[in-house]
Each structure stands twice: as structure tokens, then as C-alpha cells.
Amino acid sequence: MKRSTLSHSLLNIILVFIESALTLLLRLDPELRKAAYPLAKQGTVVALRLYLPHVEVFATFSTKGVLLDAELPVGRSEPDVVINAYSIQVINAITTHDRETTEKLQMRGESVQVQLVKQFIMQLGLGSLIQGLIRKIKGGKAKTKPTDAEMAEKKDHYKERIKEQQTQINTLTIKNRELETTVKELQSKQKTFMIVTMVALVVMIGSVIALFMS
């Protein structure tokens, strides 16, 4: 039975669109860039062998992004990781971001690189693109409705702030009263000093007059 295949020209057109989408995703999604970084650092080549339709695609991870081609890159005799799966399986893995669905994909290769590829697939998807676009449009400040737990935490935080401010106000009030008392005491001492000084001056002047008259 003849296998279902895609023409070379149609495949190249599809790969160009997918490669452009991947570039956009990597630009907008920091978590996806983080997942791709170790693969790009090693220059990992992944062979994706799909069934229904029968297609073989090679993905090369590099600092420029994820490069897609219908042939193995020049200078490479074999890929680092090989994925064998039906097209629907790959689509499900990308759209659901589910570990169990990704684990069902048949992968061959060095265990560490296989795990890195799985992490990249789980992070990949249209959801990442949409979230990235929202963050880009809103300047990275996409607003989401806070949960009940977050609201309760904020209320508790506000209550603590109010208590702290009330304590500060009470402390300042007490210090203000202490200062007022200190000022009054100083004023009272100043009056007493002035009276004593005046009395002393009067006594001294009187003594001097008495000496002159004697």
C-alpha cells in the first residue's frame, strides 16, 4: 500500500510558516527560550518522522532559532534525537502541554537530550504565542483577575500596614506630648531663673546704694 506523502514544494512552504511561527514564539515567550537554550547550546538536531501523512522533518536548534529542513543538515550523519509519531499525536502534545501526552511520543536518543526535547515540546504551543502577544501589547503587564487567596493575602497585608501606621501615629503622639511637657518645664525654669536674677540684681543694687550712703 502506498504511503500518504506531501509534495516537496508544499512541505517547504509549510516548513517556512512553522519556522516563522517558532521564531515569533521564541521572541515572545521567555520560558520557551529557556527550554530551547540547552538544545541550541549543543546544536541539537531532531528528526521528526510523522505518519498520516508520511513526512520526515529535521529541526536544528541554534542561536538563530529552530531551523527546519526536509533534509539532514550538512556535516551531520545522523540526528541526535528521533521522534516517531502520528501527526495527530504531535499536535495533541503541542496543544495540550500535557506530560503524559508528550511521554507517549516515541523518542530515541541520548536520555538527557530526549528529556530536553520533551520539555521544549511541553512549553511549545499556541497558548504561549497568545500569552506572549498579550504581554507584548500590554508592555508585559497583562492583568489577570486575582484569586480569592490573593485577595485575602492583600487584605491581610493592608491590615498589617494600617496597624503599623497606627502604631507609628501613637508613638509620634506620645513623643509630641513629651516634647510639649519638656518645653513647658523649660519655660517654667526660664521664668524662675529670670525672677531669681531680677531679685539678685535688686538686692545687689540696693547693697551698692547703701554702701555709698553710709
TrEMBL record:
Coiled coil: 155-189
Keyword Membrane on entry: yes
Keywords: Coiled coil, Membrane, Transmembrane, Transmembrane helix
Annotated TM spans: 6-26, 193-213
Protein known as: Uncharacterized protein
